[in-house]
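Consider the tokenized backbone below.
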């Protein structure tokens, strides 16, 4: 194990810290693994790009340069459309005020941009916009798999068919989509397999109601990294919209969706001080660089604000970011350990694995790319905002 001291000839000392690192080898392997799994299950991958927010990453994750893909903001839709992606789902419930922007994206770049809704009120707004603008927007009805967030009850035939009737005059109903968000609170493989099957059954139930009522439902779309990892069958499903699998994070490792060695994202930081009587190492990566996400605090292993690693990406035993201020990270040994702090003099560089890749990524505007354990010199831009 390296100790992160000054003077390594791998290029890390040339970077201003804190900054975001992306291991392209791990990224590529993660994508290949998920694609192979879904191929075996006979279902298409429509990667969710909300974690990556980068065209360079998208080109590794997508089946082709034109897609398909999923986004969570219209800014992402505009950015990826400008980069040549032509098949997108905007997978957040539509606000009527955003319909003009949706239409503009479709016209300007010729994008097949699908939108999502879960109420008659939204459907009425979409249908009216379509009639007024001569553009019947493609729509997916969001279905609630587990009470986690938005969506129509998958067995609520009255609401599903009412939405279908409204959309028939001014829009184009494509099908249903689900997100099994409660799977993020699980870790037992048996429970995760059950959640994946519950998600599938909810999707099939909603699709059957629409089809029996005479409405089209060619798309049956599900999406979460944990259920994509653990599904035993995806019969009847047409696509999977998983996203964080390609990068990974400590929360997903706690769920069991990836291993710590699979995490492709880290924050490079510099040691700027010590509080030896407290057992602290101080770095220049605080919560502005790492995010305030503390999702692992609810898991079996609390990873603080992240795991500290050497420059090769190998974790220091039981060394975590125990606390974080805006621009200061406080490294300390995990409570209860009998280990010793590593020797990290002021100026040493090290890497922090994040709790939540989406939140940590959102603090930065670029990736510094690693391959074969070394910086390549490539810098991949990423976007933020809505």
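A designed sequence for it:
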């Amino acid at each position: 194990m390296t100790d992160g001291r000054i003077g390594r000839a791998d290029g890390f000392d040339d970077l201003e810290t804190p900054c975001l690192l992306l291991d392209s080898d791990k990224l590529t392997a993660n994508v290949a693994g998920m694609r192979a799994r879904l191929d075996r299950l006979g279902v298409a991958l429509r990667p969710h790009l909300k974690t990556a927010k980068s065209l360079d990453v998208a080109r590794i994750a997508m089946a082709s340069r034109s897609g398909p893909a999923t986004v969570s903001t219209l800014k992402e839709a505009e950015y990826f459309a400008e980069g040549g992606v032509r098949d997108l789902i905007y997978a957040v419930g539509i606000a009527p005020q955003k319909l003009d922007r949706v239409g503009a994206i479709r016209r300007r770049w010729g994008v097949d941009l699908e939108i999502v809704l879960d109420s008659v009120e939204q459907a009425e707004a979409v249908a009216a916009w379509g009639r007024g603008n001569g553009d019947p927007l493609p729509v997916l009805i969001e279905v609630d798999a587990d009470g986690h967030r938005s969506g129509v009850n998958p067995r609520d035939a009255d609401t599903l068919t009412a939405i279908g009737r409204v959309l028939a005059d001014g829009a184009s109903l494509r099908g249903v989509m689900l997100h099994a968000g409660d799977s993020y609170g699980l870790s037992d493989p048996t429970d995760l397999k059950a959640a994946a099957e519950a998600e599938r059954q909810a999707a099939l139930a909603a699709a059957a109601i629409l089809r029996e009522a005479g409405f089209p439902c060619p798309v049956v779309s599900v999406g979460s990294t944990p259920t994509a990892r653990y599904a035993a069958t995806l019969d009847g499903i047409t696509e999977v919209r998983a996203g964080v699998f390609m990068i990974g994070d400590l929360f997903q490792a706690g769920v069991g969706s990836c291993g710590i060695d699979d995490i492709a994202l880290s924050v490079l930081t510099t040691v700027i001080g010590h509080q030896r009587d407290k057992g602290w190492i101080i770095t220049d990566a605080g919560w502005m660089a790492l995010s305030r996400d503390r999702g692992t605090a609810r898991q079996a292993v609390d990873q603080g604000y992240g795991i500290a690693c050497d420059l090769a990406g190998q974790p220091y035993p039981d060394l975590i970011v125990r606390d974080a201020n805006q621009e200061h990270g406080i490294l300390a040994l995990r409570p209860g350990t009998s280990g010793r702090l590593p020797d990290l003099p002021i100026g040493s560089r090290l890497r922090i694995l994040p709790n939540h890749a989406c939140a940590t990524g959102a603090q930065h505007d670029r990736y510094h790319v690693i391959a074969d354990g070394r910086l390549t010199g490539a810098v991949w831009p990423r976007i933020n905002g809505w």
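The mean pLDDT is 95.
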